[in-house]
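re the bet — no i am not wrong, look at it urself. input seq straight from the record:
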Amino acid sequence: MLDLKRHIRGIPDFPKPGILFYDIGTLLAHPEAWRETITRLAAIIRPLKPDMLVGIESRGFLVTAPLALELGVGFVMVRKRGKLPGKTIPYEYKLEYGEDVIEIQDGMLKAGQRVVICDDLLATGGTAAAAIKLARKVGADVIHAAFIIELAFLQGRAKLDVPVSSLVRYDEG
């Protein structure tokens, strides 16, 4: 089995000193590793029979679009305030230092649809938890959250009240 961790580059001191950034750019640039990533995520999500995948801005779009195509389901974007055209539904949430707002386009999710939230990385879990709450706000049934990378030492999984899957796990920062 292909070791996906070998295709994820760690960049120290980005975006600021003391942070180690996990870059999926190197994973995306390797066709065999990228195909394996989508195949593994599809194998996890397919048995759940979702109606829709919800991708979180912006690297989550890179994961969710090909995954939705592979599964034959739709893909809906969750973005920061002011980035989506037309009528949107906002969700305001607290960050460690302040607040932020994410939005979804009105009418993209229907009440009762089975939804999986997807992103490239689960860190503290704040944005993923907000995306789950936003999807529920419009009546969706959020059944799972899936990520390529999980920074387990940040305990983001604990903030999510749905089952969580990740392909690559880092236990230390």
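see?? Residues 49-170 form a domain with the Rossmann fold fold (CATH 3.40.50.2020). told u. also The first helix runs from residue 25 to 28. so pay up
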